[in-house]
């Protein structure tokens, strides 16, 4: 094909995909090319703008490694992560809603017994979490694997602290025979997503801030149920209506109750104020998907 111009380029590219052996790949790439070209036509993309886009993606690539996931930040801040989560986790009413995964989950977090302090030295006010995991019909889910992770009082996840590989404020626990779970951690606080790279500059140019409302991450896995990746947010905190990554759902906002110094839920004496969070999770049985 030698006559390629503004009007024929889109079909010319799509035609080249005809030989792709993976039909789904062909479908996705055909649609991507159509939308990408339509976007360039709609905004009449200049060469300078196209090159700025290439530079942006190059910088995102350069800053990305296994601890800094600039492309996840890009997807999150453009709402793509929330859209993909919503498209893939349509659940019956009554199930706990899923939300964005984020870039700070790590494999190999320490396993803890129920009641343990998963903070492991992370800075923050004490918080005691009490939860139950049930199926949609109310059946307690015993032995569910529950991974939790959160930022510390300074707004950093353990993986963001250079030179210290200790897992803090994250852990893996299992529900008891009644589907119950309790552990100690620290109070979640609002924090900004990493914004010292291209995504941060993009937010700045768009007049957007990088802050997320206070939350605690959960990933719950149990045989026979759809895996649940979600957060619990703190009622009354800042940014609940302005989450930089569009992760908030009304059903995931809970009271984190402040208590004066005294006897904590684990029976210990807390000399400082502490918080309690009670939240129940309802898993979607795999058969309803
Ligand atoms: C998080 O909640 O850990 C997170 C989610 C999206 C982007 C950055 C952080
Ligand atoms: Fe987070």
Secondary-structure content class: alpha+beta
Low-confidence stretches: none
Number of strands: 13
Physical arrangement of strands within the biggest beta sheet:
3-2-7-8-9
**What's the mean pLDDT score?**
95
User: What is the count of helical runs?
Assistant: 6
Strand content: 15-25%
Principal-axes shape call: globular
The largest β sheet comes out as: 5 strands, mixed
Q: Radius of gyration, rounded?
A: 22 Å
Q: Give the oligomeric state.
A: single chain
Small molecules held by this entry: benzoic acid, fe (iii) ion
How do the SSEs run, as a string of H and E? HHHHHEEEEEHEEEEEEEE
- Cα-to-Cα separation, first versus last residue: 46 Å
Kindly state the percentage of residues in helix: 10-25%
List the helices and strands and how they pair.
Layout lengths: L8 H8 L6 H21 L3 H17 L6 H8 L2 H9 L37 E10 L9 E5 L20 E5 L5 E7 L4 E2 L5 H8 L5 E2 L2 E7 L6 E7 L18 E2 L1 E4 L2 E2 L5 E2 L3 E10 L6
The protein binds benzoic acid and fe (iii) ion.
Fe (iii) ion binds next to strand 7.
Short précis:
This protein is an alpha+beta fold and 289 residues long. The chain has helices at 9-16, 23-43, 47-63, 70-77, 80-88, 198-205; strands spanning 126-135, 145-149, 170-174, 180-186, 191-192, 211-212, 215-221, 228-234, 253-254, 256-259, 262-263, 269-270, 274-283.
Verbal overview:
The protein has 289 residues and is of the alpha+beta class. It contains six helices and 13 strands. It has helices spanning 9-16, 23-43, 47-63, 70-77, 80-88, 198-205, and strands at residues 126-135, 145-149, 170-174, 180-186, 191-192, 211-212, 215-221, 228-234, 253-254, 256-259, 262-263, 269-270, 274-283. A hairpin with a 5-residue loop joins strand 11 (262-263) and strand 12. The protein is globular. The mean pLDDT is 95. The site of fe (iii) ion (FE) has 5 residues, from strand 7. Benzoic acid is lined by residues 73, 76, 100, 102-104, 193, 212, 245.
């Amino acid at each position: 094909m030698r006559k390629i111009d503004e009007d024929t380029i889109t079909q010319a590219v799509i035609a080249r995909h005809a030989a792709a052996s993976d039909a789904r790949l062909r479908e996705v790439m055909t649609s991507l090319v159509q939308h990408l070209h339509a976007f360039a036509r709609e905004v009449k993309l200049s060469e300078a703008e196209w090159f700025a886009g290439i530079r942006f993606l190059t910088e995102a690539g350069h800053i990305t490694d296994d601890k800094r996931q600039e492309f996840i930040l890009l997807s999150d801040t453009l709402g793509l992560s929330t859209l993909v989560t919503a498209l893939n986790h349509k659940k019956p009413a009554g199930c706990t809603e899923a939300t964005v995964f984020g870039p700070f989950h790590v494999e190999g977090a320490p396993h803890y017994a129920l009641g343990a302090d998963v903070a492991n030295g992370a800075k923050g006010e004490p918080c005691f979490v009490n939860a139950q995991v049930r199926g949609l019909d109310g059946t307690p889910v015993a032995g569910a694997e529950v991974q939790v992770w959160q930022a510390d009082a300074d707004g950093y996840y353990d993986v963001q602290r250079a030179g210290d590989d200790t897992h803090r404020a994250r852990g893996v626990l299992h529900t008891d025979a009644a589907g119950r779970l309790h552990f100690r951690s620290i109070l979640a606080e609002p924090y900004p997503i990493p914004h010292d790279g291209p995504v941060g500059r993009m937010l700045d140019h768009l007049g957007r801030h990088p802050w997320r409302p206070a939350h605690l991450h959960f990933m719950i896995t149990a045989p026979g149920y759809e895996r649940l990746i979600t957060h619990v947010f703190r009622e009354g905190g800042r940014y609940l209506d302005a989450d930089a990554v569009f992760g908030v759902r009304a059903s995931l906002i809970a009271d984190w109750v402040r208590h004066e110094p005294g006897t904590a839920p684990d029976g210990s004496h807390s000399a400082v104020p502490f918080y309690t969070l009670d939240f129940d999770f309802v898993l979607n049985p795999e058969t309803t998907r």
